[in-house]
């Protein structure tokens, strides 16, 4: 059996919690309505943003008219600000990452876009800077052009880290993403909270 040498983390919903309620409030819509605009992914707008095929300005130009149909008073700047909806990481998570860094190679694989990363970028050099624990293994979908749960996203990380699937644990809060990683041979954890994460990692050795 291969020894675990690397742990690959998702960001949103794992390292940083998402405040989608505040994001929806920013554009004056119920959370379910605003989320539906992303889930429907009309014209592959959201997928193209996360793959880096279009930039944030192009994405907002496409999204804004749809939001405005639901709330005529919304401004384009409010739509842009609503894309930055991640909360700072909890202190316990930061402490745990520091411990893990001393034992494993840590990596990030995240379906993301520039605004999604603003919170983390602003935190660099502060007590909330978690990116320091993952450098140089930070793989953001809009930069690598690959999104989960497509296999090529996971293979990209494994190849860059020069490890096999059996040497890695993948952590995500979305079952479709962990199922895809598991099918490729990675061990996986469906993230719920930090206490559960610690227990599951201990079980996996």
Note the topology.
Elements: E1 6-9, H1 20-26, H2 31-40, H3 45-51, H4 56-70, H5 76-82, H6 91-101, E2 105-110, H7 118-122, E3 138-140, H8 141-144, H9 151-161, E4 168-172, H10 175-183, E5 187-190, H11 194-204
Parallel strand pairs: 1-2, 1-4, 2-3, 4-5
Helix pairs in contact: 1-2, 1-5, 3-4
Strand content: 5-15%
So how many helices?
A: 11
Q: What gross morphology would you assign?
A: globular
Secondary-structure element string: EHHHHHHEHEHHEHEH
How far from one another are the termini? 12 Å
**Strand element count:** 5
Give the averaged pLDDT, no decimals: 92
Low-confidence runs of at least 5 consecutive residues: none
The side-by-side strand order for the widest beta sheet comes to 3-2-1-4-5
Structural class: alpha/beta
- Helix percentage: 40-55%
Looking at CATH, the homologous superfamily of the largest domain is HAD superfamily/HAD-like
Radius of gyration: 17 Å
Can you tell me the CATH architecture of the largest domain?
3-Layer(aba) Sandwich
For the largest beta-sheet, the strand count, sense and barrel status come to:
5 strands, parallel
Q: Quick one: CATH class of the largest domain?
A: Alpha Beta
- How many structural domains does the protein architecture include? 2
Q: What's the CATH topology label of the largest domain?
A: Rossmann fold
Q: Can you walk through the features of this model?
A:
With about 200 residues, this protein is an alpha/beta fold. It has 2 domains: about 130 residues, HAD superfamily/HAD-like (Rossmann fold); about 60 residues, no CATH class. About 45% of the residues lie in helices and about 10% in strands. The longest helix has 15 residues. The mean pLDDT is about 90.
